[in-house]
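Lab notes, practical 5.
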Amino acid sequence: MKAFLSLFFLLIILNSKTLDAQVKPALKFPGTPFQGTKQYCDLKPLKYKVTIKGYDVTIVEYYKNEKPTIVTGTYKKGKLFTNNPTEKKYKMSGAYYAIYPESFGYSNLEGGDFILFELCR
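Output from the prediction step:
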């Protein structure tokens, strides 16, 4: 009877450890605000769709019926470096865009302020 109880207790402990291993959170990428796709809007007909997969970022700008503008980039040490010509022209690498879970923005280049957009509702 003691052997049966010991074996039963051992199986319960092993089973609970394997359950813990299966509910670990998804892979995290430090320095990125979220994973997946989010859309950010303003009162204007301007809208942004931001997709983050790993450390790679795609920003698509939609304005009325014009052709969308696509910017790609990569997070390095918590900063976003993109192929945006404005970012390169003004030497703002890693400081032009600001992406947060609830908002998205870009520098207005005049005073260091950001033009922010909230999540679309």
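Observations recorded by the TA: The domain at 36-119 is CATH 2.40.128 (Lipocalin). The longest strand covers residues 46-53.
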